[in-house]
């Protein structure tokens, strides 16, 4: 692994890594859940995020990673919707490592359906120590397993969503947290942030009318009892949303058409 290539930090407009060779990766499928779709039947972003969590959990449970490397947090999720998934349908998911380092990895998930739905995703996942709650080295067995689908072993982190947050204004809205939004770490579950994105898509339906990319970066956790406000900017056909606590940005999301 010493001679493996370095992954240069990508950006919002860069293409995702291609599929691995046939037979590699973890695969599963299930019906589209009625609780994950919009009124017109489109699989919502929060539904996609839950599916990414579920296949990640299933992947851990199906391998030794569930014992050796059980705790991971996601720092960034990229979702490319080429053709929306529509209810009713059955979705096939394939998950594999597209680049890695000793403490984190990019995990690609390809989603497709028999009716033509096509979604490509990538998540920047960090291995976490159960004792310290801090990033920790991935086990040797897990590194060997992840390396089966990539020769990129020097993955670096670089934020994609760096434009400054707008100043406080009368367009700020509160984002009330529900008990069901909080996970076992007392953090807002990463899928819950997409509820706010979906609220804005009601105002800007053209964003999901054609192929589109959505990126969310979780900068710092939001705890269960914190007060969250949302600021946004819709400009040049793209929407950026900032989740702010006590004046500090905790999470940023951006949705824009794929050209």
Order of the strands making up the biggest sheet: 2-4-5-6-3-9-12-11-10-8
- Could you name the CATH topology of the largest domain? Thiol Ester Dehydrase, Chain A
Q: What is the number of beta strands? A: 12
Q: Could you give me the name of the CATH homologous superfamily of the largest domain? A: Hotdog Thioesterase
Low-confidence stretches: none
Q: Could you characterize the architecture of this molecule?
A:
- A hairpin with a 2-residue loop joins strand 10 (229-235) and strand 11 (238-245).
- The mean pLDDT is 94.
- It contains four helices and twelve strands.
- The chain has two domains: 13-155, Hotdog Thioesterase (Thiol Ester Dehydrase, Chain A), CATH 3.10.129; 173-257, Hotdog Thioesterase (Thiol Ester Dehydrase, Chain A, Roll), CATH 3.10.129.
- Helix content is 15%, strand content 35%.
- The chain is of the alpha+beta class and 259 residues long.
């Amino acid at each position: 692994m010493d001679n493996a290539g370095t992954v240069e930090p990508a950006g919002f407009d860069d293409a995702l890594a291609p599929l691995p060779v046939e037979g590699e990766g973890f695969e599963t499928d299930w019906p589209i859940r009625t609780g994950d779709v919009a009124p017109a039947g489109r699989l919502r972003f929060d539904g996609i995020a839950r599916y990414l969590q579920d296949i990640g959990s299933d992947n851990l449970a199906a391998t030794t990673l569930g014992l050796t490397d059980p705790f991971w947090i996601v720092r960034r999720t990229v979702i490319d919707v080429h053709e929306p998934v529509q209810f009713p349908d059955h979705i096939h998911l394939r998950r594999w490592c597209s680049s890695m380092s000793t403490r984190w990895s990019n995990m690609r998930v390809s989603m497709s359906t028999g009716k033509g739905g096509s979604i490509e995703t990538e998540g920047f996942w960090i291995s976490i120590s159960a004792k310290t709650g801090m990033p920790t080295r991935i086990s040797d067995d897990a590194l060997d397993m992840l390396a089966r689908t990539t020769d990129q072993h020097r993955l670096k982190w670089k934020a994609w969503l760096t434009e400054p947050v707008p100043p406080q204004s009368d367009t700020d809205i509160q984002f009330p947290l529900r008990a069901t939004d909080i996970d076992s770490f007392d953090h807002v579950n990463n899928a819950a942030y997409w509820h706010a994105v979906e609220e804005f898509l009601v105002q800007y339906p053209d964003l999901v009318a054609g192929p589109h990319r959505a990126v969310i970066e979780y900068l710092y956790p939001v705890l269960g009892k914190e007060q969250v406000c949302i600021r946004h900017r819709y400009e040049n056909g793209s929407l950026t949303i900032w989740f702010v606590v006590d004046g500090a940005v905790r999470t940023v999301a951006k949705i824009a058409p794929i050209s």
